[in-house]
Specification:
Helix content is 43%, strand content 20%. It is an alpha/beta fold and 301 residues long.
Length: 301
């Protein structure tokens, strides 16, 4: 839907000041453009029957059993939700870069808030970890609708700083969340690819479904710079004065080799991967998530 696409664009989202409203508008706008979604419905799974007792809610009576056996029983469900989703959001210094309406960190946090809203709307459970070289903030996995505010507050207080130590973070996450669930990594992945892939492999070995949203700015992917330019390191004190035209070909070759290595490593470890530009409408991330969620549901059948 053209109108909803336009509204979901980063320029439009930037004008909405509160992240909770951003998340709500992104998700509702995205879903309004879909046909009836297969992702919603009763989230808890049927466990067992028990005999009806006076005062029980009649909506939970299994009338098929009553018709067959002439006795009243109540359907009981597992207390837990179908999905336990943890959002791992990179807030290291490199995420502060951005030449569009949203820098990488703002874009990543908006994606995370939108996914949290969507997960809670599905009556599933969501938690959040913001990290750089250490865990910055952590929100436990919960399924109550008002839990969105806790996730948004954690994301709102994180200013990008420090380097990324992604393998160490994934090791801590694996220890903190031993129960199988979905891990959604939202990061520019600007770290040692081998360490990144070792960390992802660790999460997969624990049985988690892992999805990576690789957030990159157009400048990083296209290198459009022309005249004499000074490049400052965001996670170091280094800088480089140069003619970017002389570097462009070598830079783009290195970036594409890096992207290929990450893609291949994710594929080897059965990690779902999506490269998202910060110039793209934010529903691209939601579409990738829902597509992955449906695939995961079929794998678990």
């Amino acid at each position: 839907m053209p109108d909803s696409k336009r509204f979901l664009h980063p320029e439009a989202i930037k004008r909405i000041s509160r992240m909770e409203l951003r998340a709500r508008h992104i998700v509702e706008g995205f879903l309004s453009g879909m046909h009836r979604s297969p992702y919603f419905g009763q989230s808890v799974e049927f466990l067992q029957h028990r005999e009806y007792a006076i005062g029980d809610d009649l909506r939970h009576v299994d009338w098929k059993v009553w018709a067959r056996q002439d006795r009243l029983v109540i359907k009981q469900y597992e207390e837990d939700t179908n999905l336990r989703c943890t959002l791992l959001v990179d807030t290291s210094a490199s995420m502060s870069y951005g030449n569009g309406p949203l820098n990488k960190c703002e874009y990543a946090c908006t994606v995370a808030a939108s996914l949290a809203y969507l997960v809670l709307k599905q009556q599933d459970a969501v938690g959040c970890v913001a990290f750089d070289e250490d865990v910055r903030t952590k929100v436990p996995v919960r399924s109550k609708r008002n839990h969105l505010q806790a996730v948004i507050e954690a994301l709102s207080v994180t200013e990008p700083r420090d380097k990324t130590d992604i393998q160490s973070i994934f090791r801590k996450v694996a220890e903190t969340y031993p129960r199988r669930g979905m891990m959604v990594v939202i990061s520019d992945l600007l770290t040692d690819p081998e360490a990144l892939l070792r960390g992802l492999k660790l999460l997969r070995r624990q049985g988690h479904d892992v999805m990576v949203f690789h957030i990159m700015d157009d400048d990083e992917l296209d290198f459009p710079f022309t005249g004499p330019t000074r490049f400052d390191g965001l996670e170091s004190l280094d800088y480089l004065n140069c003619n970017p035209r002389a570097l462009r070909e070598g830079y783009l070759t290195a970036v594409n080799e890096f992207l290929d290595e990450v893609r291949r490593g994710c594929a080897r470890n059965t990690v779902d991967y999506a490269l998202i530009r910060t110039s793209e409408p934010l529903d691209a991330a939601l579409a990738s998530y829902l597509s992955n969620r449906l695939g995961m549901h079929h794998r678990n059948q």
